[in-house]
Write a structure and sequence with these properties.
Length: 469
């Protein structure tokens, strides 16, 4: 398995993590006493020697060919978020927390990735997704197009399209999938299949009339037309697939969830009709998803909400599947392909819902009462909708521009080793799997692979910081 964790550090995210730790102490868990063994130097020396022995085994590099590619993206998950999650995990198990290990902490290779967009020092999720999926740096707000394309200018699309690693994998005969807790046509997943100069063109209902008339396609339409046979599609965004004013199957009386398409097309029905001679299934709730028999399904389209899926804390566990449940079904379907698979998994909005904080750099949580900072000791940090304080008043918090961490594990993971441009990531993954433009090195003069057999999987875990954008 090949894992790459990219963690974009950002001011907002940093404070968010520190806040979580503060909340744990104030919220009733208390600060546990550290174990007596930590007072003994032998404990630390033994631990360090064990770590050293593990590090020495890495001198023998894994140069196998990766059969499977999995990219995990924690959108909004900076390095401080990882630190706070580690501490929380430990404290929930009765430890002090800092000594705990997350799974990504166990990955043997770590690098840093530079997240800037070509026209923005502080990036957005669209331009960064284009980088780590298509291998090309791009302008903010654009997906699947090069930096020659200008946001919202339809006529700059044609000729500037760039393809993604999902397409490279599909062309190599692998199965491919997208699983997200946001809309399937949101910024991150859309860069895997769409070429659009505006990340907000979810359907033609969100596009300016002149762009539609000029022939530009909305992102939802491109999901089904650009790479017609994506094997697994799961997430939200149901309303963008249905005609304008068509009621939603789950919320029939709520107009804000009605269809948005002005062209009158029903993209779900079109997909179902096109796939009727294949082993394909459309699902829209947890019960339908968990009733799927992976042995009888090769293609699945799951749209579980009109917009984004709710946070795990707030989701209806009877109707909305968890990210874990979606991923488990996805892998069971994808792994049937003997040539392997590529899977993009996104846990979205990691830091859009702060619970505790020492301080946010900026955002709507700025509060001054009679010229003084609000008394934080009187606040309910356990409340689901607790809003963290911020230092600078803004309608919403902003991105940070720091580098993000990349944790790597699997074949060729050692190629992530220092400070890299973000667009380097898919090139490493493609090289490890011998797909896209990185195929020549895999073949010897006799036509056989020059690398070891494709036994392991390669998973890349990107934890990128995306806030309200």
């Amino acid at each position: 398995m090949w894992y790459v964790t990219v963690v974009p550090g950002n001011t907002t995210t940093m404070t968010f993590f520190l806040i979580i730790c503060s909340c744990l102490a104030w919220g009733g868990l208390g600060k546990p006493q550290f174990p007596d063994q930590e007072k003994d130097p032998l404990f630390w020396n033994t631990w360090a020697q064990h770590t050293l022995k593990n590090a020495l085994t890495l001198q023998k590099l894994n140069q196998n060919t990766a059969k499977n590619l999995i990219l995990f993206l924690g959108d909004g998950m900076g390095i401080p978020t990882v630190t706070a999650a580690r501490i929380l995990k430990g404290q929930l198990s009765g430890q002090s927390g800092e000594e705990t290990q997350l799974e990504m902490d166990k990955f043997p290779f770590v690098a840093l990735s530079k997240t800037y967009n070509t026209n923005a020092q502080v990036a957005d999720s669209a331009g960064t997704a284009t980088a780590y999926l298509c291998g090309v740096k791009a302008n903010e707000g654009t997906v699947g197009v090069s930096a020659a394309a200008v946001r919202s200018q339809c006529n700059t699309t044609q000729g500037n399209e760039v393809t993604s690693i999902l397409k490279w994998a599909k062309e190599a005969g692998k199965s491919v999938g997208i699983v997200t807790t946001t809309r399937v046509n949101h910024a991150t997943p859309s860069a895997a299949y769409a070429h659009c100069v505006d990340r907000d063109w979810f359907s033609d209902g969100e596009m300016p009339a002149e762009a539609v008339q000029a022939g530009c396609k909305d992102i939802a339409r491109q999901l089904f037309e650009n790479i017609p046979n994506i094997d697994v599609i799961m997430g939200g965004g149901r309303k963008y697939m249905f005609p304008k004013n068509q009621s939603d199957v789950e919320y029939p009386g709520d107009k804000k969830h009605f269809g948005t398409r002005k062209d009158g097309r029903n993209l779900v029905e079109e997909w179902t009709n096109r796939m009727k001679n294949k082993k394909a299934q459309y699902v829209w709730n947890k019960r339908e998803l968990l009733s799927v028999n992976p042995n009888n399904v090769d293609y699945i389209l799951g749209l579980f909400e009109p917009g984004d899926l709710p946070y795990n804390l707030e989701r209806n566990t009877e109707t909305d599947p968890s990210l874990t449940e979606m991923v488990e079904v996805a892998i069971k379907i994808l792994r049937k392909n003997p040539r392997g698979f590529y899977l993009l998994v996104e846990g979205d909005d990691v830091d859009q819902k702060p619970f505790t904080a020492i301080l946010y750099g900026n955002g709507p949580g700025f509060k001054v009462i009679n010229g003084l900072r609000e008394n934080v000791s009187t606040l309910d940090y356990q409340g689901t909708n607790y809003q963290a304080q911020s230092a600078v008043p803004l309608r919403m918090e902003t991105h940070g521009g720091e580098d993000v961490a990349v944790f790597a594990k699997g074949p060729m993971a050692h190629l992530l080793h220092g400070v890299h441009e973000q667009n380097y990531i898919p090139h490493v993954m493609a090289y490890a799997a011998c797909i896209g433009q990185n195929r020549d090195h895999c073949m010897s003069s006799g036509g056989a692979s020059s690398l070891s057999p494709a036994l392991p999987s390669l998973a890349a875990l990107l934890t990128l910081t995306r806030l309200l954008c």
